[in-house]
Amino acid sequence: MSATINCKEFADYFAVPVQNKMNPAYVFEVEGKPHSIEEYYLDDLGHIHHGRLPPCVLEEPMITKDVYEVAVSLIQMFDNLDMKERGSKTWSGAQFVLERSSVLVFLPGLGEINYMHELLTNMVHKRLQVYPLHSSVTLEEQKNVFLSPVPGYRKIILSTNIAESSVTVPDVKYVIDFCLTRTLVCDEDTNYQSLRLSWASKTSCNQRKGRAGRVSKGCCYRLIHRDFWDSSIPDHVVPEMLRCPLGSTLLKVKLLDLGEPRALLATALSPPSLSDIERTILLLKEVGALAVSVQREDENPHDGELTFLGRVLAQLPVNQQLGKLIVLGHVFGCLDECLIIAAALSLKNFFAMPFRQHLDGYRNKVNFSGNSKSDCLALVEAFKAWQTCRQRGELRHPKDELDWGRLNYVQIKRIREVAELYEELKNRISQFNMYVDCRRPVADQEYVHKQRFILQVVLAGAFYPNYFTFGQPDEEMAVRELAGKDPKTTVVLKHIPSYGFLYYKQLQSLFRQCGQVKSIVFDGAKAFVEFSRNPTERFKTLPAVYMAIKMSQLKVSLELNVHSAEEIEGKVQGGAVSKLRSTRVNVDFQKQTVDPMQVSFNTLDRSRTITDLLLTIDVTEVVEVGHFWGYRIDEKNSRILKKLTAEINQLQLVPLPVHPHPDLVCLAPFADFDKESYFRAQILYVSGNSAEVFFVDYGNRSQVDLDLLMEIPCQLLELPFQALEFKICKMRPSAKSLVCGEHWSGGASQRFTSLVSGCALLVRVFSVVHSVLHVDVYRYSGAQDAINIRDVLIKEGYAELAEEPYESKQSHEALKGLFYKSVENMADLSTSSPMKNDEKYLIRVLLESFSSNKLGAPNCKAILHGPFNPYELSVIV
Hints:
Blueprint: H1 7-13, E1 16-18, E2 21-23, E3 37-40, H2 46-49, H3 65-85, H4 93-98, E4 102-106, H5 110-121, E5 128-133, H6 139-143, E6 154-159, H7 162-165, E7 172-177, E8 180-186, E9 193-199, H8 202-209, E10 218-222, H9 226-231, H10 247-255, H11 261-265, H12 274-287, H13 308-315, H14 320-332, H15 335-346, H16 358-369, H17 375-391, H18 398-408, H19 412-430, H20 447-463, H21 475-481, E11 490-494, H22 504-510, E12 517-523, E13 526-531, H23 543-553, E14 559-562, H24 565-571, E15 585-588, E16 593-596, H25 603-607, E17 614-624, E18 627-632, H26 635-649, E19 665-672, E20 675-687, E21 690-695, E22 701-705, H27 715-718, E23 724-728, E24 731-733, E25 738-739, E26 743-744, H28 746-756, E27 761-769, E28 772-779, E29 787-788, H29 789-795, E30 799-801, H30 806-819, H31 823-830, H32 834-851, E31 860-863, E32 865-868
Helix pairs in contact: 10-13, 13-14, 14-15, 14-20, 15-17, 15-19, 16-17, 16-23
């Protein structure tokens, strides 16, 4: 029996009438004899907190910073307690050190475990082995709590209520209980379950206390006041019937024809309220599981007749929304995916999130979700990948399967449980003539995208009305917050220390686990971190941005070791560097430069390489419809490219000094008309002994052996890259061309490629946004007038007119003003001012002083805030 059961309530419920009175059922108690356990409350720990702690509030369960510090102080105090207890024994110091008892700390959730773990691991010279115990950590990590600690070390287990009854750790002597838990409750408005922070019951806390007296005398420290324990902590847990959805229960009642649910549930041990029953009946009618009466006046708010859908849902061991998902999956031809989602969401998450490695687990999950960024689709893709590997025989041995799980951050035991439920669901729906059809049309190249779109629609239908839609972000606000940087590639950090550009290498290393950093702009107390984008991929929010925002959500500490501003100004150039405090500095990792930059948006940066709004170009790479790369073929630009190519191929080329990696700019060979020459290139991918490179002056790409890649001299990085990226303005896919809500159809792609290939094009620049030219594109066809490619795509039904984004409109106005100026003024714009040259000199002096250690070792720490992104959404439940 359970140690937390309310015996009296059960005895009274099963009472029997004897001689005109109700006699409760007999209660038999079989008591064990645990070792004695001493209880302590905050009142007994005044020597630690000195009365500084605020009183606990019943309506506001929480852990304050001071209470965490009390727990840490207690752990530090246990050595003295052990010495005091064993002082009378004739043990040597070495023997005592070898036997330090374990400590079990009860915390309500993973966030609190993370915080406590950080506090304990920051304690130096305390010889502690700290282990988390939570349902989301991997099974391997959970097993660590049973290991004996290294001799001389104390084992600290940070656990949720999983260690209350499910797990017994034999060598625990001390229990520290925050008396909090997260309880599964049902929201009255949405009928959805969520974990809510609440005070644990006395029976649960007593169960926790019992963990300490298993092998020796123990101590339990409850970090609340004694009077709060006596007067406010509830005696028992609220029964599940009163806090969880009643949908499945009501469907079973209807299926078994046990009468009106209200009457039957009134006889339960803990009967639910009438309002809960009425709300659940209404929900089942909304879902379609119960029939709605034709005559509104005949409608019974406490009952209804089962529909066919209701009979199906009553037979499935999943909740109503997931049951409806399965039925809709059958109707719309995506039953297999819906079965996987229903099975996975009914059990514990099979994605592994190793403790302190959440970012790696999240990255893997994002990879499985693809462009959808959907948890449900990530579950489907991961399950199918595991299924496919098993069918191929790649996971025949248990070790191979475990290795696959570690590599893909999947818990094998849990994904097997999902597979069992998946098979069970398949068997149960077969009685309703629903079967999985794994065949797919061979000829349809867009089948995968269409199927994913249908699945997203089915998910929306199954969970209606409990979903949300993305609104349009405030573009004007995003431009202001990111100072003109692209929100799809950039995040912002705040609380940057003075002369922040000195620490750009530290910042780069902080974001290395997110992605390749292209540049960092330091602007006062802010830093704009821009990640590298593959130039041959369509416009989308980079995975690196998602990873950076996840770092912020996980509260990953971002610290810099820095010098104080006063120290820097006192040691360098007699304080002359102080004028750099307000200078905007750009660190370009591609070009390996640190330069001052104008305090303005980058609208005009790319336009300085454009001397006319009408350009003649050759298209070299089509990314997607309306998005392509090319280079100018006018006489002036042709001379620049020929001169650059000649200069490169007269050099004594040197192999790369570092191992090739994505985003590295180098020299790569390309054969044209049987003549091989070297050109400037950026590495896109490295695979085996070859790399895919993008030629930054022409816009095409090629596969090159790693041995043929050469180092690029610094002087060749100063000339701007000559390839131009284009996007046709005022155009978007038509409904006919839209696949899965984001891709252009294959027909649209083929038509666009045929229109821009094989001839020179004339483009009129409308705007420049993040170095991308938004243009109108014209093609000459024989003796005919130029045709606008956008007009052709709209006429043939592939595209439709669209409004340009805010940044594009702003850039358009700026370009109009810029090109009204004379050529002399244009030249003035591109000339460096003496002030900029002075700032550049001071930056170089400061960086040299820092790198040569003239400033000494950094003696301060700066805690950064962020990362932030203006497109980030907060979902409030």
